[in-house]
């Protein structure tokens, strides 16, 4: 009940910010007002560019959302969610600059020079353990901050964690376009662009069914992200029983934890997991509990930072 009240209060704050921001949204022409220095990324949503104001000033990153793909209210929600998170330095910060052009909505955000984690990751290898631990601590802090403010990110993945240096001494969680308050009803996402990060309770939803949004969905995706960073691969294609690798994980996860050795209460540690150390296995098992209400919170990874993960 308390979490529900917090979610309702957060939604009221967001709605207030959205109305206020939408009322004063300035019109501009991108080519006339900005000198685009280069493209940093693109997708079905639009594109992200590095640009400099033509009337002077330092270069900034502009996220440009196509109006035919993103409605005005959706754009305002993403920008205002960013504004609500300006107190947390492990969340990508926006500048107080939002605008619209004839074809796009746009806002300015800080530049992460090293790009996203996908660009730093070596496929099939992963990242060195010290870097993974730095990412774990910082993304865990970002998620705990979101969840303490009754928000669920809903799109935790390698592409949405941005690095400010190749050693990951500073990384930030970004892209809050899908972020919603706790208690929001969401439909199935498994099989879309969210797999293999989608939790099993999402993958099991039928088309007409919905699920109450909880932080445990982020926790699951965070566990998948850490596995990918440690191994350079995903543990499965989709968290559904039809996936053999997930089926093998289910058998192991259902067994009681017994440290030391490849078996766990009679269930073998899945082959893809056997290069990981005892601490990493225990941590990931807790993040990836099959029962959502038994998953650890994201910040609990800090308990494992002093132990070897390999």
UniProtKB/TrEMBL annotation:
Q: Which SUPFAM superfamilies match?
A: Protein kinase-like (PK-like)
- Annotated residues that bind ATP are located at 63
Superkingdom, taxonomy of origin: Eukaryota
Q: Which UniProt keywords apply?
A: ATP-binding, Kinase, Nucleotide-binding, Transferase
Residue ranges of the Protein kinase domain?
34-305
The answer on whether this UniProt entry bears the keyword Transferase reads yes
Q: Name one Pfam family in it.
A: Pkinase
- GO MF annotation terms: ATP binding; protein serine/threonine kinase activity
Q: Which InterPro entries match?
A: Kinase-like_dom_sf, Prot_kinase_dom, Protein_kinase_ATP_BS
Q: Tell me what this protein is called.
A: SBK1 kinase
Supply the gene name.
Sbk1_1
């Amino acid at each position: 009940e308390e979490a529900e009240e917090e979610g309702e209060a957060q939604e009221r704050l967001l709605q207030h910010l959205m109305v206020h921001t939408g009322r004063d949204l300035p019109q501009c022409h991108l080519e006339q007002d900005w000198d685009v220095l280069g493209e940093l990324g693109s997708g079905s949503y639009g594109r992200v560019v590095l640009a400099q104001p033509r009337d002077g000033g330092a270069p900034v990153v502009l996220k440009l959302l196509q109006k035919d793909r993103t409605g005005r209210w959706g754009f305002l929600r993403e920008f205002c969610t960013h504004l609500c998170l300006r107190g947390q330095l492990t969340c990508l910060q926006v500048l107080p600059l939002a605008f619209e052009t004839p074809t796009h909505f746009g806002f300015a955000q800080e530049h992460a020079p090293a790009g996203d984690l996908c660009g730093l990751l070596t496929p099939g290898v992963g990242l060195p353990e010290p870097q993974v631990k730095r990412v774990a601590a910082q993304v865990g802090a970002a998620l705990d901050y979101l969840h303490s403010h009754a928000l669920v990110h809903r799109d935790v993945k390698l592409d949405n964690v941005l690095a400010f240096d190749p050693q990951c001494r500073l990384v930030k969680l970004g892209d809050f376009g899908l972020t919603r308050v706790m208690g929001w009803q969401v439909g199935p996402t498994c099989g879309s662009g969210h797999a293999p990060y989608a939790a099993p309770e999402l993958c099991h939803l039928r088309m007409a069914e919905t699920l109450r949004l909880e932080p445990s969905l982020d926790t699951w995706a965070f566990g998948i992200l850490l596995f990918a960073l440690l191994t350079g691969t995903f543990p499965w294609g989709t968290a559904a029983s039809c996936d053999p690798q997930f089926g093998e994980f289910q058998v192991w996860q259902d067994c009681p934890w017994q440290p030391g050795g490849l078996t766990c209460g009679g269930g073998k540690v899945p082959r893809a997991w056997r290069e990981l150390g005892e601490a990493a296995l225990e941590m990931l098992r807790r993040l990836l509990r099959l029962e959502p209400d038994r998953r650890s919170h994201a910040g609990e990874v800090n308990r494992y930072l002093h132990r070897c993960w390999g």
